[in-house]
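Comment thread on ticket #2218

A.B. wrote:
> Attaching the input chain for the structure job we discussed in standup.
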Amino acid sequence: MIRYITRRLLFAVPTLLAISFVLFALLDLAPSDPTGQLPLTIGPEVRAQIRESLGLDQPFAVRYVKWLEQFFVNEPLNVVEKITGLEIGDSSGRLRVRSWATRSPVVDLIVERLPQTLWVVGLSYVVGILIALPIGVFSAYKQYSWFDQIGAFVSMVGFSVPTFFTGLLAILLFSVTLNWLPSIYDTTHEVTDLGSLWTQLKQLFMPVLVLAFYNAAQLSRFMRSAMLDNLNLDYVRTARAKGVRERAVLLVHVLRNSMIPVVTMIALGVPTIFGGAIITEQIFRVNGLGQLLIVAIQGADIPLVQTLTFIFAVLIVLFNLVADVLYGLLDPRIRYD
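C.D. wrote:
> Ran it. Output below, let me know if you need it in another format.
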């Protein structure tokens, strides 16, 4: 297992380098200019000076190598210094990936927005999994029952209806009609006591509910399908013939084998947490990574867009590895050595 993980991590290095080059090249070739939104009264000389200060006067290869150095060397060193308090080299002169719009380090902007995204999108993903798995298992075990029919209908609605529609319905119901919950998420709110915790839970309820409903809808049907594929196999009939209790057959044998494809879906969905829920964050005014990406795209803030998309690619590669490792834990027949 250790050799397999090491081999996959080594293979991930050229993969991520290739992805970084493609992302950097595509965004660099995009028809966007950081001086495009400046007033027309600013002359071409000043615009040229601004482009020079941003390093856009340098060749593509030079800018790409500098971005690699800043992202893979300077930023990790800065993180190590903040965690350990040790100064490594000349930290004051170390170049960092900076936003064109705010001139702030991009990683600092991401770290600032990350807690809000984890609160909303991360919690909704966990809630969606906790709802979907038991529903999928019971729907498969009671196939074509009234529970299965209702679950199929609700799942179809949840998967088909976009989140901006369910989000607006939740606002109309809980905020406008019942006046129970706030319609806007207050990102400056701090939890200090039970009262502030209750306020945080109230403002979390609607965005988490909307996203959890969407995630649970597709995952529950996938879980049901995986369970049905295993319920009629020979090993299930053998276990029942040996007198194994039905609960043990369902939860020990069938569920464990059914979780193998479901684990892939869950693991590959984790990077979407860090990518943010762009539509839901816009509806409830959650100041998270999704909204940060939208602002960066609208403002042609290429370094911020490059960093966010590349981090998303890194997470996809990483959780692909996590899913493969979990295969071996769920199915003893899978060997990596």
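A.B. wrote:
> Thanks. Noting for the ticket: Residues 268 and 320 are 6 Å apart (CA to CA).
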